[in-house]
Amino acid sequence: MRTECLYSCYLFDLRSKIWYKFGTMADIKEKIVVTSALPYANGPIHIGHLVEYIQTDIYVRFLRLCGKDVIYCCADDTHGAPIEINASKQGISPEELIAHYYREHCEDFAKFFISFDSYYSTNSPENKDFSDLIFSRLRDKGDIYKKTIELTYCPQCNRFLPDRYVKGTCPRCGATDQYGDNCEVCNAAYATTDLINGYCVICHALPTRKESEHYFFRLSHYTDRLRTWLTENSLLQEEIKNYILHWVDSGLKDWDITRDAPYFGFPILDDPTKFYYVWLDAPIGYMASTKHYCQKHGGRFESYWEDGTGKIIHFIGKDIIYFHFLFWPAMLMGSGFNLPSNIFVHGFLTVNKEKMSKSRGTFITAREFWQKANPSYLRFYFASNLSRSITDIDFDLTDFKDRINSELLGNIANLVNRTLNFSKNKLEGTVTNPDKTEYQQLLDQKNPKIMSDFENCEFRSAIRGILEFGDYANKYFQQREPWRVIKENKEEAGKIVSTCIHWIRDLCILLKPVIPTICQQLETQLNFPDLTLQDLGEIISGHQIGVPKPLIQRIESLDLIGKGIN
Question: How far apart are CA 386 and CA 169, in angstroms?
Answer without folding.
Answer: 32
